[in-house]
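tool=predict chain=A
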Amino acid sequence: MRVLVQRVSEAKVTVGDAVTGAIGKGLLLLVGIHDTDTEAELRWMAEKCAKLRIFEDCGGKMNLSLQDVEGQALVVSQFTLYGDCKKGNRPSFNQAGKPDFASEMCDRFCVLLGAELGRAVPTGRFGAHMMVHLVNDGPVTLMLEREAG
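tool=predict ok
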C-alpha cells in the first residue's frame, strides 16, 4: 500500500461539476492499493496517517498530528502510485491492485481512518476522472509505504 500525504490548508475533489469531497485544514491522501494488501496494511496506514506528526506546534516544530489539530482527511484513490517507469517511456501499472479489490480496500481504509479520527472521511470517486484541487501547506508532502507480509 502506498499513500502520498500532502498537508493542506484546503482541498477538494470533483467529478464533472460535482464536488465529491472537500476539507479545510488537514491531509490530502492519495491512496494506491497493491493486490497483496491485507487488513493489516490498511490498519497500519490508517493509524500512521492519523498520528503522523507533521503539523506545527506553537513553537513552529512539526510535533502535532491530524488528531491533535482536529484536522480533516480527504482520500483520493490513485492507482498511478504503482506506475513503474523503469522500462521505456510508458508507465506499467501491473503492480496496482485490480479495480474491484482496490475499490473495496480503499473503502475499508476510509472506514478505518474515520474510526481513528472520530469522523467520516470524504473521498473522490473510485475509477472516475477526478480533478483534485489543493493548497499544499508548507509545502509538506510525504510518501508512506507498507508492503504486505
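The radius of gyration is 15 Å. The chain is about 20% helix and 35% strand.
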